[in-house]
Specification:
The protein contains four helices and five strands, in the order βααββααββ. It has 142 residues and is α+β, with helices and mostly antiparallel strands.
C-alpha cells in the first residue's frame, strides 16, 4: 500500500509537548477528511502514548520523543518512539490498572486506552533501549 503523505517530528519529553503532538497528529490526519470521532480517537491515543513516554520512558527527565504519521488511502499509522528506559514486561504493562508509578496516582490505563481508541497497537520495547508504539486507525472514508 502506497502512502499518500508522511510527517515526522521530534520534540522534548516535556508535558507541554503532549498537546503539541496531539494537535500535529490530528491536523495531519484531517487532510483525509475523517469523522470528528476518528480525529478524537487519534488525539486521545497520541496523548496517552506521549504521556507514557514522558512519565515512564524518561521518568520526567528530558529526552527526545519522535512521532511519525503515515497516511494511506484508508488508514493512518502513527508511531511514537523514545530512547528511554524501556518496558521490562510488556504484557504486565498492558494490564488495565497496572502502573509502575503508583506514587503518582496514575490510572494505569494508558495502553488500554490506546487499544480501545485505535484499531491496532504494537508495542516494541527492551529495558535500557526505549519503546516504540505503532498504532493504526481506519479512516472510515474509503
Amino acid at each position: 500500500m502506497q502512502p499518500i503523505n508522511k510527517v515526522k517530528v521530534e520534540f522534548l519529553s516535556k508535558s507541554s509537548n503532549e498537546a503539541f503532538a496531539r494537535v500535529v497528529a490530528a491536523s495531519f490526519v484531517a487532510q483525509a477528511d475523517p469523522s470528528i470521532e476518528v480525529l478524537a480517537d487519534i488525539r486521545t491515543a497520541v496523548s496517552e502514548a506521549v504521556t507514557n513516554s514522558i512519565i515512564h520512558g524518561y521518568d520526567e527527565k528530558e529526552g527526545i520523543i519522535t512521532m511519525a504519521c503515515t497516511l494511506y488511502p484508508e488508514l493512518v499509522e502513527i508511531t511514537i518512539e523514545d530512547s528511554g528506559k524501556g518496558i521490562e514486561d510488556i504484557e504486565k504493562a498492558k494490564e488495565p490498572l497496572y502502573t509502575s508509578k503508583p506514587e503518582l496516582e496514575r490510572s494505569g490505563m494508558g495502553f488500554t486506552v490506546m487499544e480501545t481508541f485505535m484499531d491496532t497497537l504494537i508495542i516494541e520495547s527492551s529495558p535500557g533501549t526505549g519503546t516504540r508504539i505503532v498504532m493504526t486507525k481506519q479512516l472510515g472514508n474509503g
